[in-house]
Amino acid sequence: MDRENTLFLDLKDGRVVIELRPDLAPKHVARIKELVRQGYYDGLKFHRVIPGFMAQTGCPQGTGMGGSGQKLEAEFSKEKHVRGTCSMARAANPNSADSQFFIMFDRAPHLDNQYSIWGQVVEGLDLVDNIKKGAASRNGSVEDPDCIVKLTVAADVEE
């Protein structure tokens, strides 16, 4: 494991290990690591969770409308959105990704070449499956959502 390019996502049920993909999205990986090292994601809600699709987090307001204030240029790749893929959320503008991201529950070909993939869950996908789901009638909006307990770069964690 390359600890500098591995994230530990601590959830209520345990630790998820995410392998970062700087080969696909170097600017996104660098920005995510910067935010992680600032503690930006700690305590943030999984505000939009759609069963069979994805779990989204990274909004400081917990509404899906906020971010860190620093937009990123798209880094689309030929990589596919499959189970465990970590990818950036964005608005209609391809260059509007900021701090929000999602983790895929399943394959979603309609997202391929449309969103910047920056990582892959390599351990703990069953814990991601346990994230509280939202109502389909409310576009996945979650009542009393689960939160990120802590998100850290593995190189910064003593084990």
Task: Give a description of the structure.
This protein has an 8-stranded antiparallel beta sheet with strand order 3-4-6-5-7-2-1-8. It has one domain (1-152): Beta Barrel (Cyclophilin). The protein has 159 residues and is an alpha+beta fold. The chain has 2 helices and 8 strands.
- From the N-terminal CA to the C-terminal CA, the straight-line distance is 14 Å
**Number of domains in the coordinates?**
1
CATH homologous superfamily annotation: Cyclophilin-like
Alpha-beta classification: alpha+beta
Strands side by side in the biggest sheet: 3-4-6-5-7-2-1-8
Which spans have pLDDT < 50 for at least 5 consecutive residues? none
Give the topology string: H per helix, E per strand. EEHEEEEEHE
Mean pLDDT: 97
Assess the beta-strand content as a share of residues. 15-25%
Please describe the structure with a list of short key phrases separated by commas or semicolons.
11% helix; 159 residues; eight-stranded antiparallel beta sheet
Q: What's the structural blueprint in terms of helices and strands?
A:
Layout: E1 6-11, E2 14-20, H1 26-37, E3 48-50, E4 54-57, E5 85-88, E6 101-104, E7 117-123, H2 125-129, E8 150-153
Antiparallel strand pairs: 1-2, 1-8, 2-7, 3-4, 4-6, 5-6, 5-7
